[in-house]
Automatic annotation (TrEMBL), chain A:
Family membership noted in the UniProt record: Belongs to the CGI121/TPRKB family.
Domain of life: Eukaryota
One GO CC annotation: EKC/KEOPS complex
Major location category of this protein: nucleus
Role noted for this protein: Component of the EKC/KEOPS complex that is required for the formation of a threonylcarbamoyl group on adenosine at position 37 (t(6)A37) in tRNAs that read codons beginning with adenine. The complex is probably involved in the transfer of the threonylcarbamoyl moiety of threonylcarbamoyl-AMP (TC-AMP) to the N6 group of A37. CGI121 acts as an allosteric effector that regulates the t(6)A activity of the complex. The EKC/KEOPS complex also promotes both telomere uncapping and telomere elongation. The complex is required for efficient recruitment of transcriptional coactivators.
Organism in which the protein naturally occurs: Hyaloscypha variabilis (strain UAMH 11265 / GT02V1 / F) (Meliniomyces variabilis)
Record keywords: Nucleus, tRNA processing
Cell compartments where the protein resides: Nucleus
Pfam family, one: CGI-121
Protein name in UniProt: EKC/KEOPS complex subunit CGI121
GO BP term, example: tRNA threonylcarbamoyladenosine modification
Automatic annotation (TrEMBL), chain B:
Organism from which the protein derives: Hyaloscypha variabilis (strain UAMH 11265 / GT02V1 / F)
MF (Gene Ontology): ATP binding; hydrolase activity; protein serine/threonine kinase activity
InterPro entries (UniProt xref): Bud32, Kinase-like_dom_sf, Prot_kinase_dom, Tyr_kinase_AS
Enzyme nomenclature, EC number: 2.7.11.1
Protein known as: EKC/KEOPS complex subunit BUD32
Reactions performed catalytically: L-threonyl-[protein] + ATP = O-phospho-L-threonyl-[protein] + ADP + H(+); L-seryl-[protein] + ATP = O-phospho-L-seryl-[protein] + ADP + H(+)
Self-association and partners: Component of the EKC/KEOPS complex composed of at least BUD32, CGI121, GON7, KAE1 and PCC1; the whole complex dimerizes.
GO biological process assignments: tRNA processing; tRNA threonylcarbamoyladenosine metabolic process
GO cellular component annotations of the record: chromosome, telomeric region; cytosol; EKC/KEOPS complex; nucleus
EC class of the enzyme, as a word: transferase
Cellular compartment(s): Chromosome, Telomere; Cytoplasm; Nucleus
Transcription is among the record's keywords: yes
Keyword vocabulary terms for this entry: Activator, ATP-binding, Chromosome, Cytoplasm, Hydrolase, Kinase, Nucleotide-binding, Nucleus, Phosphoprotein, Serine/threonine-protein kinase, Telomere, Transcription, Transcription regulation, Transferase, tRNA processing
Length: 201, 267
């Protein structure tokens, strides 16, 4: 089974396929980040710190938004890949979003997303080949069960300001009783925060 | 026949790109309000159902105003939903939006609206020849859940703006309901209350706005389910317990009942 996943998201043109690969214990984060900073065109990827990703849906939601914004000609950052990282952010600070969600020298678990577009098509096999030769780390399946072991829930709650402790007498009336899956709940709150990014007016 | 094809062509033309890009199933039109079209579709993966709410532009509005209103309404609905979700009010989650294109994608809520379930329940009782007030614990219990959900909504500083029995969903409680014996005593009134359609919602802590919400709901129960009206007191009783200040709202409700939903503009 191929570890690289290729997806066609709902409500996106079939020409815009999404490739996703997950790596554990990467050793060359500094080098990889440098390629982005240098604008090396061989490294047109969204490099995401897997620690701030709740689930597959979380990551795919960012990809969806970035591609939709690409199609609507309103990217706010350099390209669709940096836009994916920026799409994870709950606010409009692009540099901050890279620091929080993007690769940093201390990143160990790395989620990589590559968008294939009509102007620069990328076949799964080529992407896999290039990643295999560039990433020093263990490739693991892009699945919730694997991602969840990497997730730093406290950090995510902090970034998305979901520390419900303060005031408001939280959840005084858990209206329908029974609390559901905590991970699912976190995911839903994160998706909402992302969707509202940039919302003014 | 002719008008049908015409309409289809028309729709094809006005729908934004999101509708034209492929999805596992073509978005299915569920309902159409004065302002928005509601479709059932999928988000990201074929396995995740979503509700896709599209606000078409209104040809009779000035184009600049039209764009502004559409944007404003989509954003305010999304903002209110996110706030509610965060505070634990049972509402659909927000998945994605494109205010410029005029659409909002939210969680698909399974189940049926209270209006339909209540009618079924009342009809069955009629068929079984049960008198009012006999064995109506299920209805009482539903009213309690409604009161609690509305109370929770108001407690976080949101008013719904169009609180009717068609905007309250009854979502089946996961699994148990499905495995349970369907034959004998299925309770059509069972399920979690989920508040839907926040198109007219706003952030407000005013007793007046809250009381109007309750008044509209009371009228909705009264007009479509006359036999349920008598039990509306149960909604109010639970509501009164749900947050500090709820009793002031109940007082205000008496005032609203006397004059109707609109406030007098005289004096």
């Amino acid at each position: 089974m191929a570890l690289l996943q290729t997806l066609h998201l709902e409500h996106l043109p079939s020409s815009h396929a999404i490739h996703a690969a997950l790596y554990r214990d990467i050793k060359n984060a500094t080098h990889l980040q440098q390629q982005l900073l240098n604008g090396n065109t061989d490294f047109e990827y969204a490099f995401i710190d897997a620690g701030v990703i709740v689930s597959k849906i979380h990551a795919l939601a960012a990809a969806y938004r970035a591609v939709n914004d690409l199609l609507e000609n309103r990217l706010r950052s350099r390209n669709v890949h940096s836009e994916i990282v920026f799409s994870l952010s709950p606010n409009n600070n692009i540099a901050e979003s890279f620091r929080r969600f993007g690769i940093t020298p201390t990143t160990t678990n790395l989620l990589i997303i590559k968008v294939s577009t009509p102007t620069s098509p990328a076949a799964a096999s080529e992407v896999q080949e290039h990643l295999t030769s560039s990433i020093e780390g263990e490739q693991v399946p892009f699945e919730d069960s694997v991602l969840s072991q990497m997730t730093d829930v406290a950090r995510i709650k902090k970034i998305y300001k979901l520390n419900s402790g303060g005031g408001g007498g939280k959840k005084t009336g858990q209206v329908n009783g029974a609390k559901g899956d905590e991970r699912k709940e976190l995911e839903v709150l994160v998706l909402g925060a992302m969707a509202l990014r940039g919302v003014t007016n | 026949m002719k008008t049908e094809t015409k309409q289809a062509v028309n729709k094809q033309r006005v729908l934004p790109p999101v509708f034209q890009y492929p999805s596992a199933a073509v978005p299915l039109l569920i309902t159409q309000g004065a302002e928005a079209l509601l479709y059932r579709s999928t988000y990201l993966l074929p396995s995740i159902p979503c509700a896709l709410k599209y606000r078409p532009s209104k040809p009779y509005r000035h184009p600049i105003l039209d764009v502004r209103l559409t944007k404003h309404r989509i954003l305010s609905e999304a903002r209110v939903l996110v706030k509610c979700k965060r505070e634990g009010v049972p509402v659909p989650a927000v998945y994605a939006l494109d205010e410029a294109a005029g659409w909002l994608m939210i969680e698909w809520i399974e189940g049926e609206v209270v209006r339909i379930r209540l009618n079924e329940w009342l009809k069955r009782r009629k068929d079984e020849d049960l008198a009012e007030g006999v064995d109506d614990e299920q209805l009482l219990e539903l009213m309690t859940r409604v009161g609690s959900a509305v109370g929770r909504l108001h407690a976080v500083g949101v008013v719904h703006g169009d609180l009717t029995t068609s905007n309250l969903m009854l979502r089946p409680r996961s699994r148990e309901g499905l495995n349970g014996d369907l034959g004998a005593a299925v309770n059509t009134l069972e399920g979690d209350i989920v508040l839907i359609d926040f198109g007219l919602a706003s952030q407000s802590q005013a007793d007046e706005d809250r009381a109007v919400d309750l008044y509209v709901l009371e009228r909705a129960f009264g007009s479509t389910h006359p036999r349920a009206e008598s039990l509306f007191g149960e909604v109010l009783r639970e509501y009164g317990k749900s947050f500090k200040g709820a009793n002031v709202v109940l007082k205000k409700l008496e005032e609203v009942r006397m004059r109707g939903r609109k406030r007098s503009m005289i004096g």
